[in-house]
Amino acid sequence: MIKAVIFDMDGVIIDSEGVYLKYQLEFAKKKNPNVKLEDLYPMVGATKQECWEVVERVVSNGQTWEELRKEFRQRDIYSEIDYRSIYRLEVTDTLKQLKEAGFRLALASSTHLELVERVLKENGIRDYFEAVVSGEQFKKSKPDPEIYLYTAGQLKLKPEECLAVEDSTIGITAAHRAGLKIAAVIDTRYGFDQSLADYKLNRVKEVLEAVKVHRI
Q1: Is 40 helix (H, G, I), strand (E, B) or coil?
Q2: Nearby residues of 160 by Cβ (< 8 Å), 6 or more positions away
Q3: CB neighbours of 182 closer than 8 A, spacing ≥ 6?
Q4: Are 170 and 44 in contact (CB under 8 A)?
Q5: More confident residue, 34 or 214
Q6: pLDDT tens, 43-97?
Q7: Which pLDDT score is estimated for 215?
Q8: Which Gene3D superfamilies does the record associate with it (predicted)?
């Protein structure tokens, strides 16, 4: 029986991945004008190292992924992004309905906590979540299951009593390894493997139907 829904943030609550890619493409093109947007698709949903190894490979200018990431981070792109403009508006009503139906809510994101809190507060949804967990709290990020095991523990629930709402391959893998049920928001842009998901959602609000199955 599902008692809680644990949301990922990027690609689920906010449609941020394409926005980040534009900044990364701009940076990569300064190093190598031949880089195309599609070349950077493997960055989406990847771990930090895997993400910047993609840049290292496509830029191919002799810089290491660590050097490239350090240089990129000199610009605070997050302060330039309006997170309300990429917020999925249906999320608010979805959270409200889940809460009213008695489901407990949490968020487990690989993104650093300060930004997670900012996104939630700017979009007026912070109070819906009992627990907000960031990947920066752990030695290993997704696809390691620790973030989901910890979040379920914060709710004092077993992993099998929780449903994760994810989109990326590594997020789905993390939730699967932790033993959660998984609802995947379909996104065909970046080649995600969502085969481990128990449910496929065209829109986030369809999670309301997925949880009903496990309320019987």
Answers
A1: helix
A2: 179, 180, 181
A3: 163, 164, 166, 172, 175, 176, 196, 197, 198, 199
A4: no
A5: 34
A6: 988 888 889 999 999 999 999 999 999 999 999 999 999 999 999 999 999 999 9
A7: 58
A8: HAD superfamily/HAD-like, Putative phosphatase, domain 2
Q: What angle do CA 18, 193, 41 make, to 5 degrees?
A: 30
132-to-104, 137, 160, 166 alpha-carbon distances in Å: 12, 11, 19, 15
pLDDT in tens, 134-188: 988 888 889 999 999 999 999 999 999 999 999 999 999 999 999 999 999 999 9
Does residue 216 carry a pLDDT above 80?
Answer: no
DSSP string, 6-42: EE--BTTTB--HHHHHHHHHHHHHHH-TT--GGGGGG
Hey, what amino acid is at 31? K
Residue with tokens 């523990």: 153
d(CA 120, CA 122): 6
Q: Residue type for 105, please?
A: L
Helix axes 169-178, 146-154, angle to 10 degrees: 60
Which of 184, 180, 182 has its CA nearest to residue 161?
Answer: 180
Helix (H, G, I), strand (E, B) or coil at 57: helix
Query: Angle between the 17-31 and 48-59 helix axes, to the nearest 10 degrees?
Result: 40
- CA angle (164, 151, 17) in 5-degree steps: 50
